[in-house]
Write a structure and sequence with these properties.
Blueprint: H1 8-15, E1 17-18, E2 23-24, H2 28-45, E3 49-52, E4 55-58, H3 68-73, H4 80-85, H5 88-101, E5 105-112, E6 116-123, H6 126-141, H7 150-161, H8 170-175, H9 177-187, H10 190-214
Antiparallel strand pairs: 1-2, 3-4, 5-6
Helix pairs in contact: 1-2, 1-7, 2-5, 2-7, 2-10, 6-7, 7-9, 7-10
């Protein structure tokens, strides 16, 4: 049996990795929103976060591996979308560094054309990604939704919300639309918030591009 990371954000980072292309298929806000939503979902599924008046509030005390619960506890009530966006870019680095430290991935500095620096991410054991993908695939096509492992259900919901092509290409999202909706309902409010945050961010970028071209 292949060992996989314990936390949902770490699992979603690995699921964003395309083994065939040997690279991450999501970066920037897209990946950041998915990972933040994964942290919120983990807390919600474990009862450490609850929803009150459409906003996350602290629930049962417990572990807070990424400090997200502490952020929420120290703040006035804010929307799920706010917490999905909060520190999302830095959160990608936090999860990446965790995976490097624990030996799941290797990160090397490279330069394109000998000039432009970038980071090359390599998964040390491809079987880990395959196992996580198998769990998500089984959740999408297998047993009744009520019997699906909660993290596998959440993986599908988050992958659909963040449009992770490594897990759910567009045709698959459309083909399994109803099943994804049911798995998302099981996973709490954060995946829906991630989808809305991503669409808002893309709309803002499109609007900015249109304004720029018209000036």
């Amino acid at each position: 049996m292949v060992e996989v990371p314990d936390t949902l954000p770490a699992r979603m980072y690995l699921l964003a990795y395309d083994l065939r292309k040997q690279k991450l298929t999501a970066r920037g806000p897209q990946l950041g929103y998915v990972l933040r939503a994964a942290a919120l979902t983990e807390l919600f599924l474990d009862g450490r976060l609850e929803e009150r008046r459409g906003r996350p509030v602290p629930g049962t005390p417990g572990e807070d591996p990424y400090g997200v619960l502490a952020q929420i506890s120290a703040s006035r009530p804010r929307s799920w979308q706010h917490w999905v966006r909060k520190d999302s870019r830095a959160f990608v680095r936090t999860v990446r560094d965790e995976l490097v430290r624990d030996g799941w991935i290797r990160v090397r500095g490279r330069r394109r054309l000998g000039l432009f620096p970038y980071e090359e991410v390599t998964v040390r054991d491809p079987r880990v990604v395959k196992d996580l993908w198998g769990g998500a695939s089984s959740a999408l096509r297998g047993r009744p939704v009520a019997h699906v492992n909660s993290y596998d259900a959440a993986a599908v919901a988050l992958a659909a919300a963040g449009e992770l092509k490594s897990v759910l290409p567009g045709p698959e999202r459309r083909r399994h639309k109803q099943r994804i909706k049911e798995l998302t309902a099981r996973s709490g409010p954060a995946p829906v918030a991630a989808r809305k945050a991503l669409r808002s961010q893309r709309a803002a970028m499109a609007s900015g591009a249109a304004s720029g071209s018209g000036s």
